[in-house]
Amino acid sequence: MRETVITPASIANPKTHYGDAKASTRHFITQRVTGLINVLFLGLLLFIVVRLAGQDRADMVSVIGNFWIGVPLALLIAIAAVHMRNGMRDTLEDYFAGSMYRLTMLLNTLFCLIVGLAGAGAVLKIVFWG
């Protein structure tokens, strides 16, 4: 398979095709949709932060343990992890290539998966098991 060399001239030429168009479009749309959802959930997050300011652990557990607050909060954490993965991917694409690129993408995905599962799991544990 012949490797295509990407140059500034090939990027400037609109007839040159490089990269995966479907994956790039999916990435673009996912980043915008998760960003919009994060903005919409900002009100819930602000409510929780203001409500829990100066409270002790028992009050925190009672607020987050409410089904109508805890489940959307867990969803927000999961969506923020997806948004974080895509944002980190954009940055890592600029600095790494080859096998190092694949390794950093794997580590990025694993890190965001662990953060998302741990955060959402902790909130859902409080909601369903106190």
Short description:
This protein has 130 residues and is mostly helical. Helix content is 82%, strand content 0%. It has one domain (24-129): 3 helical TM bundles of succinate and fumarate reductases (Up-down Bundle), CATH 1.20.1300.
Task: Explain how this protein is built.
Helix 2 (21-52) packs across helix 4 (67-95). The protein contains five helices and no strands. The radius of gyration is 20 Å and the shape is elongated. It starts with 7 loop residues before the first helix and ends with a helix. The protein has a single domain, classed as 3 helical TM bundles of succinate and fumarate reductases (Up-down Bundle), CATH 1.20.1300. It has helices at residues 8-12, 21-52, 57-64, 67-95, 98-129. It is an all-alpha fold. 11% of the residues are buried. The protein is 82% helix and 0% strand. The model has no long low-confidence stretch (mean pLDDT 89). It is found in: Membrane. Its main location: membrane.
CATH third-level topology: 3 helical TM bundles of succinate and fumarate reductases
In terms of quaternary structure, what is this?
A: single chain
Taking the sheet with the most strands, its summary is: none
CATH architecture: Up-down Bundle
Task: List its salient traits.
3 helical TM bundles of succinate and fumarate reductases; Succinate dehydrogenase hydrophobic membrane anchor subunit; SQR/QFR_C/D; elongated; 130 residues
